[in-house]
Amino acid sequence: MNTDRIPGVTRFRNRAYTGQNRCLPCTALNAGIALVLGIVAAVLTSAVVAGAVVAVAAVVIYLRGYLIPYTPTITKRYFPDRVLEWFDKREPAADVGGEATVGVGSEAVAGAGSETVAGAGSEAATDTGSEAATDVSGEATADTDGETAADTDGGAAAETPLSSLGLVEGSGEDVHLVPSFATEWRAEIDETREGLPERLADRLDLSDPEARTRDGVCAVLDGDTEVTRWLSEAALIADVAALPVLDSHVDDWESLPETEQSEILAELRVFLEECPSCESRLLFDTEIDGSSCCYDREVTVYRCSGCNASLTRLR
Q1: How confident is the model over 204-232, as pLDDT tens digits?
Q2: Residue 11: CB partners within 8 Å, gap ≥ 6?
Q3: What are the two backbone dihedrals, phi and then psi, of residue 49, each rounded to the nearest 5 degrees?
Q4: 142 versus 153: which is more confidently predicted?
Q5: End-to-end Cα, the chain, rounded Å
Q6: pLDDT tens digits for 153-177?
């Protein structure tokens, strides 16, 4: 039923808090208040009056989004974040620390790695997103005040895919890529930056590749067709450059499951100190990644201090 056709409804409806913008925590709170009012009315008057109270309250909640004024302020201030996430329609990102989340690109950025986008040879490797969980160094985001990933505590690195493959060494706060791997990767990054279309054609088996940044992410196109997306062109360059190096350092790299390839690529970008696009220093920063009327979701972003490109997004 299209209620907008009913006289007066359009003027009374608050679209900021209804439809796709409806906040479920606010709706749940107000529905509970409506039921309490109905019970009170039943006790003090009659079932008919109670039914009328609940019905009117339901209509108000349906059209306005909430019954009690300032509900968004109340829920945002007094509801625990864990409770708010129960109602949130978006998939929650992993917490900073042992369950850090790394975005490797694409729809990826928004969609939990539903697309595959990078691979060795003609195969596409996995494209995971800002919400696709991949484990990185447990302390990777503990300190975001101007430090690069290389400066952070790597105490948990012993349990990551990179360490199991022998691609990192050291312990505690001194965990770093194996020098030979780091040197080769840096050289590949430089070459990929200068010849990205050719590398995309080779690695993603595209005939007319182009990387185009739009709407905050880097879209990879083959002619006029969008093939996939990455978190940024800098992240794209880093991952594409890593593929041949991984192929030479990791036995049977091409045969590894896409999810495992994704975790490895995601971890690698945390160890970069310079932006693959402009060679400026990479730093941790925080930003709001979506919000509702009840709360803002803050994420940690490993980004370039020069071109502002995001390499990873963690929370």
Answers
A1: 889 999 999 887 789 999 999 999 888 89
A2: none
A3: -65, -40
A4: 153
A5: 41
A6: 444 434 678 888 889 988 877 888 9
* Dihedral Cα 73, 79, 85, 88, nearest 10 deg: -40
* 8 A C-beta contact, residue 301 and residue 269: no
Residue type for 270, please?
Answer: V
Q: Let me know if 122 is exposed, middle or buried by CB neighbors in 10 A (0-12, 13-18, 19+).
A: exposed
Backbone angles phi, psi at 294, to 5 degrees: -95, -35
From CA 169, how far away is CA 175, in angstroms rounded? 6
The residue extents of the domains of the chain are: 3-87, 107-314
Q: At what angle do helices 71-78 and 24-44 cross, to 10 degrees?
A: 110
DSSP the chain: --GGGSTTHHHH--TTSSGGG--HHHHHHHHHHHHHHHHHHHHHS-HHHHHHHHHHHHHHHHHHS-SSTTHHHHHHHHS-HHHHHHH-SSPPPPPSSTT-B---SSHHHHHSS-EE---STTSPPEE--TTSB----TBTTS--SS--GGGSB-TTGGGSHHHHTT-EEEETTEEEE-HHHHHHHHHHHHHHHHTHHHHHHHHTT-SSEEEEEETTEEEEEETTEEEEEES-HHHHHHHHHHHHHHHHHSTTGGGS-HHHHHHHHHHHHHT--B-TTT-PBEEEEEEEEEE-SS-EEEEEEEEETTT--EEEEE-
Q: How many CB atoms lie within 10 A of CB 113?
A: 26
